[in-house]
Amino acid sequence: MKYLIIGAGPAGLSFACRLLEHGEKDFLLIEKENEAGGLCRSQAVDGSPLDIGGGHFLDEKNKAVLDFVFQYMPKAEWDRYERDSRIFINDTLIGSPIEANIWQMKITDQVEYLKAIAVAGCNLGTEKPERFVDWIYWKLGKKIAEDYMLPYNQKMFGKDLNELGTYWLEKLPNVSFEETLLSCLEKKAYGTQPGHAVFYYTKKYGYGELWRRMAEALKERFQPDVTVRTLDIEKKEVNGEFSAEVIINTAPWKSFERIEGLPGELQRNIDGLKYSSIVVDYKEEKLDTKAHWIYYPDPALSYHRILVRHNFCPGSRGYWTETNLTRFEGADTGQDNSGECRTFVNEYAYPLNTIGKNEAMEGLLSYLKKRGIYGLGRWGEWQHFNSDVVVARAVQLADGLLQ
């Protein structure tokens, strides 16, 4: 075939559907699971859909992405929300991001945070550190670092934060002492909103419904239940069974049992890639909050955030926790007394932005691209992309290859 696409998550599905929009039909999309969607799959739990790969939402900011996905699931089937995310810190529930909502804390805590922000390295003009932990102190101040950012990141990514680079944090704005002081005095948030400030979520089916419909549009060109084990670079062959002029890989590079024809240095680059695994665990309790999700930096709690389903999924109840697999303390089976699964393990959840990762991926992807093999999406590019970014990159790649 002309194109072989590995992995039917948002990246693979968007690329395949874009090919079809251009009239290109000589392709096949293969997926190891029995359904499409990847980390964005949904499953009925306690009478309503639950996103088994964690919290995923459709960001409003990219109109081209919205136009693309609304072809497969019309806008009328989505609800639009203004983000309400919060942080439970120092026994207080405040808005997120923390630097814009310190004014919601007790007055004594506000004073301590303001004092720490005033002497943060970025506000004093001191040299930017290179190590992750030092960088967090420099960027955000001692209080935000120790009460929130460091414990939260340890819970989400692991204890050794200094193995992470700082390049992925450059988008964080400096915590301005002046803006923080004004927000405390005027009791309102200052500064920029985080990602997903406005988002869409499906009215009935869960986020996974979008990707299920995209797979349906592909018809026989989507083949589930195919586990990819081997990739032969020179032959451009997968499992000794499928071959193509161009291969698009959206699966984790570390999930291949063998990649033939890859230089040893590039294989070592793959071996050095790191990731974290998460467990999604459903709780049927209905919480007294309007928040869509809440962050929990407290190390005493195993989970790092919860998604309050009944606040963005109409007619539902309950919430689910998201926990690093190494910290999960729940039951192994994940089933209740009726046999319904309520706990879901995601081995590949977040690619870690370790030191040297970008250089390693650049070398790998550059080598493969010259041989007609492309890495795409969160795992193909090993970047912490949200689904809207993945869709945009998939469409862009398809358009470029079809020119």
Give the CA-CA distance, first to last residue. Answer: 18 Å
Low-confidence stretches: 333-337
CA-atom Rg in angstroms: 22 Å
> The CATH topology of the largest domain, please?
FAD/NAD(P)-binding domain
Overall pLDDT: 94
**What is the architecture of the largest domain at the second tier of CATH?**
3-Layer(bba) Sandwich
**What's the story with the biggest beta sheet?**
7 strands, mixed
Strand order of the largest sheet: 8-7-17-18-19-16-20
Helix share bin: 25-40%
Shape: globular
Structure in words:
This protein has 403 residues and is of the alpha/beta class. It has 2 domains: 3-83 and 200-402, FAD/NAD(P)-binding domain, CATH 3.50.50; 97-186, no CATH class. It has helices spanning 10-21, 63-69, 107-118, 121-124, 132-140, 142-157, 177-186, 208-218, 264-271, 357-369, 377-380, 387-402; strands at residues 3-6, 27-30, 42-45, 48-51, 58-59, 78-82, 85-89, 92-95, 198-202, 222-223, 230-232, 237-238, 242-243, 246-249, 258-260, 275-283, 293-295, 305-307, 319-324, 343-351, 373-375. It has a 7-stranded mixed β-sheet with strand order 8-7-17-18-19-16-20. Strands 10-2-1-14-21 form a 5-stranded parallel β-sheet. A hairpin with a 2-residue loop joins strand 3 and strand 4 (48-51). The model is unreliable at 333-337 (pLDDT under 50).
List keywords for this structure.
seven-stranded mixed β-sheet; five-stranded parallel β-sheet; FAD/NAD(P)-binding domain; 30% helix; alpha/beta; 12 helices; 2 domains; 403 residues
Provide the fold topology.
Layout: E1 3-6, H1 10-21, E2 27-30, E3 42-45, E4 48-51, E5 58-59, H2 63-69, E6 78-82, E7 85-89, E8 92-95, H3 107-118, H4 121-124, H5 132-140, H6 142-157, H7 177-186, E9 198-202, H8 208-218, E10 222-223, E11 230-232, E12 237-238, E13 242-243, E14 246-249, E15 258-260, H9 264-271, E16 275-283, E17 293-295, E18 305-307, E19 319-324, E20 343-351, H10 357-369, E21 373-375, H11 377-380, H12 387-402
Parallel strand pairs: 1-2, 1-14, 2-10, 7-17, 11-15, 14-21
Antiparallel strand pairs: 3-4, 5-9, 6-9, 7-8, 11-12, 12-13, 16-19, 16-20, 17-18, 18-19
Helix pairs in contact: 1-8, 1-12, 3-7, 5-6, 9-10
